Amino acid sequence: MRAWPIAAASVAALLLTGTVAAQAPDGGARGGSPSGQAGEAGGPGAPGPGEGLERPPAEGAEAAPRRVVVILLASAGVDPETADALTELAIGAVATRGHVSIVGKEEFQAQLGHSEARSAECVSSTACLGRVGVHLGVDEIIAGTIARRGDRWIFNINRIDMRSGNVAGRVFREVPGDVGALADAVQAAIPELYAQVAEAAQLLVSTNVDGAEVVVDGVLIGVYRGEAVELADVAPGRHELVVTAAGYFDWTRVVNVAPGATMQIEASLEVPEDPGESGGISPLVWIGFGTAAVAGGMAIYFGVSSQEEPEAGITQAEAEAFLDTKNTEATIANVSMVVAGAGLVLAIIGLLLSDFGGDEGGVTAAATPLEGGALLSLRGSLP
Q1: In this structure, what CATH number is given to the domain that contains residue 107?
Q2: Which of 57, 191, 273, 323 is the most exposed place for a label (fewest CB within 10 A)?
Q3: Which pTM was predicted?
Q4: What residues are paired with 254 via a beta bridge?
């Protein structure tokens, strides 16, 4: 799937919007860039990485700003520049809540060895986000992924409260339209993250193929190795589930997950049928039986007719003509009997050569030229 890059003018417009929105009403910190360092705090005493999160402020001193990680990563069909620009918008929306200090993408990825792949895996794991949050000494993490499927943008954003270690808010959206519509949806999603969150659900995906990859909403969540692939903290609502394996048809479903539910899904992958191994009844069966039926009917008709007796009182010439006719009919009947017998033999050969779906058995046929004819031989057994 090709990426959907944002033009330089569009990025500039998005960043301008984020900058305007980032000025907190009470003079709090403005969000930094997604790849930069933590923003300047709106008040003194911001805890450094690894320091205690609940240190009470000195008497009469202003409370330290909340340290918040904000990171949105690109997934299928989205380029990193688009995700970074949308992260800026999210930072601005978070900053409008006031008295926050933003921790950027660079610091977050430093905890994971600056690996994009590990960052993507961590964003999908509440446990991993919790560990990174503790090391960074932050109060909460807002993290998610953005993907493109067809004509729709898809994003899934979670807010992790480090004090409780739980998902305090989540938003999942499918957004039609251009990147402007996506930007509006991301900004609108931030206040929803601070609303009451629906209880998380869980997906357990099993399949019949070892090594099959399980993808949810365009994000790889695991590989099946004999035990169900688990995705915890699933946002309630509709999710696209795809299970793929080399040599098998993709298995795709859209599932509707209820709040707090544990949904177990069994994905049965199918192997494409080889046209050369389709099997079935040999055409010789139908040709042979058809020939035998027609020739047998003719043999019966002309055989019966050839046995008729001449009428009394006919002349010598009429009697001779009558006998010639009956002799001809008798000859036709005899020939038809031979053809009918050959048709039955052909049908039997067709049955022997037919594939009825069994894995064992089989018949081989061979013709050996002889003087004045040929010898047909069959070897094998019925399936």
Answers
A1: 3.40.50.10610
A2: 273
A3: 0.46
A4: 240
